[in-house]
Design brief:
This protein is an alpha/beta fold. It is built from 7 helices and 10 strands. α2 links the parallel β2 and β3. The longest helix is centred in the first third of the chain and has 11 residues.
Amino acid sequence: MTDDNAPSLLDLAPVIPVVVIDDAADAVPMARALVAGGLPAIEVTFRTPAAADAIRAIAAEVPEAVVGAGTVLTPGHVDTAVAAGARFLVSPGWTDRLLGAMRDSGIPSLPGVSTTSEVVALLERGVTEMKFFPAEPSGGTAYLKALASPLPDARFCPTGGVNATRAPDYLALPNVGVRGRHLDAARGRGGGGRLGARGVPRAGSGRPAVRGAPTAGGTCRSGGGARRCRRRSTPPQTGTPPRVPCGTGTPAGRRGPGGSGS
């Protein structure tokens, strides 16, 4: 969301990991691992009761991180997120009441849209930056391309079903306002501190962080008293990593609508 009181969220950071945290005790080591891996902006989704405490812990103990709240659905979520120290807000959709609370918060926000009417309604209210969710089920690149000419002021962060194969098609669009990789990472229930991302160190593992933006990949699942992780193998990255839009990949061990965080 862009207005006179809040800076651009799309300019806040080039990469935003989307995380689901079951245990607030995991938040700080996870945040430190992400920051060490070159991913300082972290979106903690309001999908678990631990979200507010996780945001509060990261804000207090990892000052290098820019922690925000995702899956913001109500004005109460906005108040809770701001009180906990969130520095940005992301929602999968919007109402006038929710939009008003997000704007009144004074921090960057991305309200979610999936139809032309919703985009026009936000532009009418002075909002030019928004989340396109769920991207692929809602028409994907063809839909966004069709919006570019009649609605040139709208900028989007596409989320939902955007994988590494589809990412370049999104980034070729003039109205996708992303300048780097987006990683969906999640902290699953149980031990290990595993992250659903290649190249991001496991919290407490002592493994060196990989600089640059890791590719979203691999999944972690809980079951039978054990956790199993499968990771995709890709060549190491050098130099400036290619850009991948918001929402690439899925939260490990948890899947939301369209297979992505919000």
